[in-house]
Amino acid sequence: MTWFANVNKIKYEGPHSTNPLAFKFYNPEEKINGQTMEEFLRFGVAYWHTFTQELVDPFGDGTAIRSWNKFDGMDKAKARVEAAFELFEKLGVKYFCFHDVDIAPEGATLQESNQNLDTIVAMIKEYMNTSDVKLLWNTANNFTNPRFVHGAASSSNADVFAYAAAKVKKQLEIGKELNGESYVFWGGREGYETLLNTDLGLEQDNLARFFQMAVDYAKEIDFGAQFLIEPKPKEPTTHQYDFDAQSTHAFLLKYGLQDYFKLNIEANHATLAGHTFEHELRYARVNGILGSVDANQGDPLIGWDTDEFPADIYATTLAMYEIIKNGGLGSGGLNFDAKVRRGSFEQDDLFYAHIAGMDAFAAGYRIANQMVEDQVFEKIIDERYASYKEGIGKDIVEGKADFKSLEQHALNLKEIKNTSGRLELIRATINQYLLTLYAQK
Ligand code: XUL
Ligand code: CO
Q1: pLDDT in tens, 9-48
Q2: Beta carbon of 49 within 6 Å of any ligand 1 atom
Q3: What is the pTM (predicted TM-score) of this model?
Q4: Percent of the chain residues topping a pLDDT of 90
Q5: pLDDT tens across 168-213, in order?
Q6: Is residue 305 in contact with ligand 1, taking CB distance under 6 Å?
């Protein structure tokens, strides 16, 4: 059975190809800095958007035409697995990610849900054994079902806390079974809508208790995946507890969890938080907690999480700069937490979308790599902070200054000379790199 009969294996044809079903910038075998693009970029497909999402929006029903929708229940779940591995293979994507409810329908009871999961996980495992596709990360969906109306680990109801724990426990076991390289916690409803009925202190303490229990259980079953928290400022709750990279970091430090978690940074979550994508990546990177990336983009004109496939090369270039400086993503990757637009409802659009996203990051990688080689930003920053390399600046950095020595320095100053930040020049330089991508230097 083939699910994508119109599509053959996608190949790299170079930047001048006019074949819509070919890569223009992503050449999986090509080595950059000693690593193939495939090894460094570690692209992943998000099961929920690609195989489960019906393309609903808050005002309209789903528009997606999907051939597996002729089935129901477990038959649909099995058809999706077949379609998924065909898409992975044709795209040449080596990783995928899922929530429990994406791969198997929830049953009437927890036992039944777990049985459904076991059946599908066995099928996925067989496909994994006969391909080189690996699990980037899995997670428990503790936000869609009405039982999570008041949250999961931060719910006001202890039974819900227990139910959420049971679901994560099962996903940790599945992650181990499928050799998952990372494991994600996105706090879908871990936050609050109004303080008028909320015990914020208890909710945050409980969330930390939940994370600690997950760490303990992973250790108990010897599941070595990197744990990741995915910050998001709002949506669905008004105030999410994992607002952004910095507040999530503070949370981890407060509860002594910093050695067990890194962050999964999502572009559209960064912009919802009022940050740039590169801000979130930079904060995580310089604090040693950049673990993985949900690669997408938002719509600057709409205030919600639109999860578009990334196409903005300016943004992917600045993102790839951070990832290169991070030395790659380790056991993380670039997971397309992205869905085709509601108007792109045909099944083949799934291929166009992934090709667009992979090419956008591959192009960004090539450009950023050239900029790192030429030390573009390093030179600018070195020069801008040169005053900390000698004299009083060196004393400050080396901990040899105090308020008295600083006052003495200030009293002796004849003038303070600042230098220009040269932002316009820097932007023009970035444009040169963007536009001369394939020009020989
Ligand atoms: C929601 C979101 C999730 C997480 C996984 O905004 O990004 O899909 O990536 O639960
Ligand atoms: Co995400």
Answers
A1: 999 999 999 999 999 999 999 999 999 999 999 999 999 9
A2: no
A3: 0.97
A4: 98
A5: 999 999 999 999 999 999 999 999 999 999 999 999 999 999 999 9
A6: yes
**Does 351 sit in the ligand 1 pocket, CB within 6 Å?**
no
Q: How far is the CA of 319 from the centre of ligand 1 (A)?
A: 19
Written as six digits, the tokens of 10 are: 């996608």
CA of 100 to the centre of ligand 2 (A): 15
64 CA → ligand 1 middle, Å = 20
Residues that are catalytic? 99, 102
CA-to-CA distance for 396 and 405, rounded, in angstroms?
10
Per-residue pLDDT tens for 395-433?
999 999 999 999 999 999 999 999 999 999 999 999 999
Q: What's the whole-number mean pLDDT along residues 229-233? A: 98
In the numeric block, the tokens 């190949």 are attached to 11
CA distance 137 to 357: 19
